[in-house]
Design brief:
Blueprint lengths: L1 E10 L3 H10 L5 E4 L8 H4 L4 E2 L8 H11 L6 H21 L5 E2 L2 E2 L1 E2 L9 E2 L6 H14 L4 E4 L3 E8 L2 E9 L4 E12 L20 H9 L3 E2 L4 E8 L11 H5 L3 E3 L19 H15 L4 E4 L5 H7 L1 H9 L7 E11 L2 E3 L11 E3 L4 E2 L11 H17 L22 H18 L6 H17 L7 H22 L21 E5 L6 E4 L6
Helix pairs in contact: 1-5, 1-11, 3-4, 4-11, 6-14, 12-13, 12-14, 13-14
Length: 525
């Protein structure tokens, strides 16, 4: 076990991790530990943009109202208020650092996305906003001497003593080496868990590791039943998929079923720009109605040259995949964003001292039951900064000199592990997907229990830890979905198809405790 000491440990290298690390470097030494390479993250693949009020015809209060509306009654008022009011300042900070967003006639170019009533979505590189932001911050991080990067590290345990987080242990399977990093403050930014589903827009590494880490350490996990399915993910028979940004619909693309009918106008006043849960479920219903695997995104009525310029990456990917972006694209929903996660306060702090969570991994209270499009990148910036500002003022806790054991790999478990991963992914997709029932949810819990009771778990073993983490994450999602006997936002129960005011509350799960519901924070008069 190699031991290292830093002031700040940032686990994860998406936008939340990179921005937090860069912010923390003002106050001390920083370690970034990432599961793969530093440029592999959900943020890197975020196409649409980053929502913030930057235009004279827009106001934070309007952004707040759009966020609350999309959140279906489950947004906490204060963090949303913080997001929309501090967001423009964080955008200005980035621009002052040299980040270049797309412009038009000398002004910031603003897009319209689902659920927004104003054009307020900034973008970069057309449809490569996440990629451009991540690349920009990676350069900042690489040129900051107080930041050290550790790649290909699977963090498998948080060091917690007396309700204080003191760092973490990780394993590099490429080098078969163990690393222990002690830190005054630890910031979890490992992203969500949507890659536990068979059909997903996420990198395959996004399986909720950070949520499992926090849960195992005793942190509160909230609202895990709310998985957002992106309505428009490219469909192919091979299973190959990629995201077709919501901004494409923002530019006027239509959703059309196999009968050639446009179906969204009769379902919602915003038609194709209705909140994502409504669009995804409407597509699912059209597919079910006609026995189809996909619907079509039609762009042939739009200005083709303008679209090619606005969405160069999507245009190229469609062409590569044999689809004509300027005519029609086969699409179907896919698991995209984990709305719930590790419960934090308004400074990104968890219920464990010196442990913070930011980005998709965190549940700040902003997203409610259904994330408003392009709020996620802004949340990374706003609460990333708040977490570091809070963390740098906290006193340091001296750990005991306990012996730290590392882990090893038993290659004999590899095939069994992969078989279970595939079986779980299929079960999650078909039974804990866009439409759910008590029977299907219980079947998934039974499958997870069966795997848990038959897998030959070994102590301090690589595949055993990954298997247990996957079971825990999928159990958190499924148990919360079973407990919420209503339909709201990203959670739809066919057997409880209406919203129920009794569930205007957040689900909370904690290790060795029963699931509970806590009230939503509303605006104080």
């Amino acid at each position: 076990m190699l031991h290292k000491q830093f002031d700040f440990l940032v686990i994860g290298s998406g936008l939340a991790g990179l921005y937090s690390a860069f912010e923390a470097s003002q106050y001390g030494s920083v370690a970034i530990v990432t599961k793969s390479k530093i440029d592999v993250s959900n943020s890197y693949y975020a196409q649409g943009g980053i929502a913030a009020v930057t235009n004279s015809d827009d106001y934070p209060q309007l952004h707040l109202q759009d966020t609350l509306t999309a959140g279906r009654g489950l947004c906490d008022y204060t963090p949303v208020d913080i997001l929309v009011n501090e967001g423009p300042e964080r955008i200005k900070d980035l621009i002052d650092l040299g980040m270049q967003f797309d412009t038009e006639d000398g002004e910031l170019s603003l897009a319209l996305e689902g659920g927004h009533h104003r054009r307020r979505v900034l973008h970069a590189g057309g449809d490569s906003t996440g990629k451009e932001l991540v690349r920009f911050l990676i350069q900042k991080v690489l040129h900051t001497s107080s930041i050290k990067i550790f790649e290909n590290q699977m963090v498998y345990e948080l060091l917690v003593e007396k309700q204080q987080c003191l760092g973490a242990k990780s394993f590099n399977p490429n080098e078969n080496s163990n690393l222990c990093i002690h830190a005054k403050s630890t910031i979890l930014t490992l992203g969500g868990a949507s890659a536990v589903y068979q059909r997903t827009t996420n990198p395959e590494t996004t399986v909720g590791d950070g949520i499992a880490l926090a849960y195992n350490a005793g942190a509160e996990i909230t609202d895990m039943e709310f998985i957002q399915f992106h309505p428009s993910s490219f469909y192919s028979q091979s299973g190959h998929t990629f995201l077709i940004s919501e901004a494409v619909r923002g530019e006027g693309a239509y959703l059309v079923n196999s009968k050639g009918e446009r179906f969204m106008p009769k379902i919602h006043e915003l038609a194709e720009l209705a909140p994502r849960d409504i669009v995804a479920r409407s597509i699912f219903n059209e597919m079910q109605k006609f026995g189809d695997n996909y619907v079509t995104l039609s762009l042939k009525h739009l200005n083709g040259e303008k679209l090619k310029k606005r969405f160069p990456s999507i245009y190229a990917k469609c062409k590569e995949s044999g689809a004509d972006f300027l005519d029609k694209i086969p699409i179907a929903p896919a698991a995209h964003y984990t709305v719930g996660g590790v419960k934090t306060d308004n400074n990104g702090k968890t219920n464990i001292n010196n442990l913070y969570a930011c980005g998709e991994l965190a549940s700040t209270g902003v997203m409610g039951a259904n994330r408003l499009a392009s709020n996620s990148l802004l949340e990374c910036l706003v609460f990333g900064k708040r977490a570091i500002q809070h963390a740098q003022k906290q006193p340091h806790f001296t750990p005991s000199n306990s012996n730290q054991k590392g882990i090893s790999v038993n290659d004999d478990l590899s095939d069994l592990f992969l078989n279970h991963v595939n079986a779980i992914a299929i079960a999650m997709n078909t039974k804990v997907g866009i439409v759910r029932t008590a029977q299907h949810l219980q079947e998934v819990l039974d499958l997870l229990d069966e795997i848990k009771s038959t897998f030959p778990f070994k102590t301090n073993e690589y595949y055993s830890i990954r298997m247990q983490n996957l079971i825990n994450v999928c159990s958190l999602v499924t148990n919360a979905a079973l407990a919420r006997k209503e339909s709201r936002g990203g959670h739809y129960r066919e057997d409880f198809s209406n919203e129920n005011e009794d569930f205007l509350a957040h689900s909370v799960q904690q290790l060795n405790k029963e699931l509970t519901f806590v009230p939503v924070e509303i605006k104080s008069e």
